[in-house]
User: Which sequence fits this backbone?
């Protein structure tokens, strides 16, 4: 991976005064991801983001954005069939680049959550669950966001393990045999489950460092300008008031297709 | 907008014990968005997210996720041509539902940022700039994320106005005639510019409240479980160290196509 633009190129993304990309930085930017992540013969780390009808867009795009610039990483999207997959509101379509049979040995699996319909349908989709079990045998990291952990659980991957999920779905963690554990993300062995929707960004940045080194994680956090200032401070379900919780659930249900 | 699932339905997204959706909540969940946002004859608030080759996925998906469940809001994606539009890494494709001529009177315009190539090409794309100018005449809110503010600026919308942008692009705000102003987002009249990438989530939640009421903003923040814990605390460009800044810029350049 080389700086195709040359180190002197300046443009709208390069305007920060005084930035020089010296040899030390170049070395840091090119760790040996194959060694760190156990990449296959391709020498690249393949991250497969599973898409399914009714997934939640930010669940998938948060980790994608955190991982797609990590040296040596190639992110791909996969679904039962290649082509457009609709989100839980039906208002957005994201392309699955590949079908399940085309992705056999990803180094990293990312399973986003979805609305009620998409999650429960996927938890009952034998073909997807069998694919998850098969690729998990060889992954370096198997991860989920939001209700994606219930899908990992339905595939039998979380039995007896600590895991998190979307706040409103916490009781279901037990039903798939896992032990609900609080946290923006919960790492156990080579499985990482993230909490709801936006927690995929936190998990993705953590994973970026795991796949490379901490300096890359730090740089990606800055690349996303991830210095959040949630405007209402109601994002923590443990402190949100009941009215806000009830309305959130209503808006989710009303927007579902 | 009604709860199509009925108030007694419970499922993986409804598991939070003790939640009841009473009449008071139902009333809150159905404010009069047409009045609040100045919607057209359709009675719905149309949010148009502009896509262009080389846009940054999270810039577009953050606001989409914050807005798509606001009562009365319909989010659509628009590009020069309808169909798949590739992101700045080339690794993800998101569908534009409509072409520019098909979207004439959106209530809200959202312009994401992009990589160097996508941003500069769009800043020089007379057809897109003319469309932005035309729809801006009637929008209730015209918004941008990251380098999207430079595109609004290139369209002539920011002359003399306070605005923000991606951290590395701050000097360019002046070049499009605006006054760089710090903040996760900067609201001036009916224009809101957000800082880099993830700041679109903060802005989107703020806008959700503007389009409805604060209670909906609070509920959407919880719906996204937006209680962030950035793992490295390096997302603030004003406090990030020089090595992190330089590596972030290098990773951005290296991942661009």
Assistant:
């Amino acid at each position: 991976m080389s700086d195709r633009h040359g180190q002197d190129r300046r443009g709208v993304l390069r305007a920060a005064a005084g930035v020089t990309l010296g040899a030390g930085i170049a070395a840091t930017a090119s760790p040996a991801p194959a060694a760190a992540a156990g990449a296959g013969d391709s020498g690249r780390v393949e991250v497969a983001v599973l898409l399914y009808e009714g997934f939640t867009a930010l669940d998938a795009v948060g980790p994608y954005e955190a991982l797609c610039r990590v040296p040596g990483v190639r992110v791909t999207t996969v679904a039962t069939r290649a082509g457009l997959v609709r989100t839980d509101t039906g208002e957005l379509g994201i392309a699955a680049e590949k079908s399940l049979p085309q992705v056999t040995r990803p180094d990293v699996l990312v399973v986003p959550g979805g609305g009620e319909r998409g999650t429960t349908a996927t938890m009952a989709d034998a073909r997807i669950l069998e694919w998850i079990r098969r690729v998990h045998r060889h992954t370096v990291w198997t991860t989920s966001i939001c209700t994606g952990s219930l899908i990992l659980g339905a595939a039998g991957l979380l039995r007896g393990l600590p895991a998190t999920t979307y706040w409103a779905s916490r009781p279901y963690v037990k039903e798939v045999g896992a032990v609900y554990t609080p946290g923006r993300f919960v790492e156990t062995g080579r499985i990482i489950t993230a909490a709801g929707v936006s927690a995929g960004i936190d998990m993705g940045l953590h994973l970026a460092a795991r796949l490379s080194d901490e300096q890359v994680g730090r740089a990606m956090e800055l690349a996303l300008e991830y210095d959040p200032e949630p405007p209402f401070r109601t994002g923590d379900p443990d402190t949100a008031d009941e009215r806000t919780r009830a309305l959130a659930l209503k808006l989710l249900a009303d927007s579902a297709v």
